[in-house]
């Protein structure tokens, strides 16, 4: 966590270790549920460490339509605020990947994408002391918090909470049966009978 209460989130990708899209979806939803229930942050700083992977193979593995849907669920469904995206890789192919990301992200989010050839330029955005040891910082290595996170996500308490959370749904019996009247400020009802939800 930064001094501004931004959560620093690191994803490290290794060559030829690309999980299935469904697993990424499920993992992202579980993280969002965990953050919403137990974390108090202002926004998320995402860092993708792609120094040990083939960027071209990574671009082929990503389905950008599904990525857009995942971002929509994260930002609109869970109201997660993304402060910045950081890509760390010396590969020149990253420009192609960033261009593809910008096509599925809003213009506001597209401006928050930063590419770093090395860790020195990352420190201009993220304080070095909160970076993991893998990045030359003072915090634990990436593996230790990841193992702790997996322990929490697979615990009985969180599994029970998660299952209860995903079983919740709207009761359609309470949905208004009145049609919207666009001439009356998009509110259902009429001047004789006005229904406000």
UniProtKB/TrEMBL annotation:
Superkingdom of this protein's organism: Eukaryota
Molecular function (Gene Ontology), one example: phosphatidylinositol bisphosphate binding
Stretches of the chain forming a coiled coil according to its record: none
Gene3D superfamilies named in the record: Alpha-tocopherol transfer, CRAL-TRIO lipid binding domain
UniProt-listed InterPro entries: CRAL-TRIO_dom (IPR001251), CRAL-TRIO_dom_sf (IPR036865)
GO cellular component: membrane
CDD domains recorded: SEC14
Span of domain CRAL-TRIO: 23-143
Listed name of the protein: CRAL-TRIO domain-containing protein
